[in-house]
Design a protein that fits this description.
Layout lengths: L4 E6 L6 H13 L11 E4 L11 E4 L4 H4 L3 H9 L6 E6 L3 H13 L3 E7 H6 L1 H8 L5 E5 L7 H25 L1
Parallel strand pairs: 1-4, 1-5, 3-4, 5-6
Antiparallel strand pairs: 2-3
Helix pairs in contact: 1-7
Length: about 180
């Protein structure tokens, strides 16, 4: 029996979504992306604690709206064109796009987890609350306080990504 997951990182620009994804690639796939992450790519998972169930992860890299214009084409011809065991997508605060992403993932038998960022929620609480009310299978709240020092921001996001990678790895063991 499988529990398939698509995680959707939600927030405006500069919330930490891309850095978070780079760190997930490093932790789960042993690939170091210090510069620009390759968008819409499937990576091989080689994390030592992922015993079975997961071998590939799809990483969006950038928010859908930054790279694509048609949500239907994106989901059919980019995201689900080559299946992965787990998906990490990213979106700006666009309720209609996110609602469509959730529906398409559900149609393909994926559970969908909404990953909400504290700094985005604090800046735009109304849009985040509206999106949080959608048909999620699970909601995650990433506690990333606004910080002034770039180094501290990176350390904070790395810690959050480690915890999230552990969650992905542990869920693989449940399958």
């Amino acid at each position: 029996m499988l529990s398939r997951w698509l995680y959707l990182l939600i927030g405006d620009d500069r919330t930490g979504k891309t850095t978070f994804q780079k760190e997930l690639i490093r932790l789960l796939c042993d690939k170091d992306y210090t510069q620009k992450v390759k968008s819409d790519t499937i990576y091989v998972i080689n994390h030592p604690t992922v015993i079975r169930g997961l071998s590939t992860i799809y990483i969006a890299g950038r928010s859908f709206q930054e790279l694509h214009s048609d949500i239907k084409v994106y989901m059919d011809e980019v995201v689900f064109k080559n299946p992965a065991d787990v998906y990490v997508l990213s979106s700006l605060l666009n309720k209609a796009d996110i609602e469509y992403m959730i529906a398409e993932a559900h149609r393909r038998f994926y559970n969908v987890g909404g990953v909400f960022w504290e700094n985005s929620v604090n800046i735009n609480p109304t849009a985040n609350r509206d999106i949080a009310s959608l048909d999620w299978d699970e909601r995650f709240f990433v506690e990333n306080k606004l910080l002034d020092c770039e180094k501290h921001i990176i350390v904070q996001i790395q810690k959050l990504a480690r915890n999230f990678a552990r969650l992905i790895a542990e869920r693989a063991g449940w399958q």
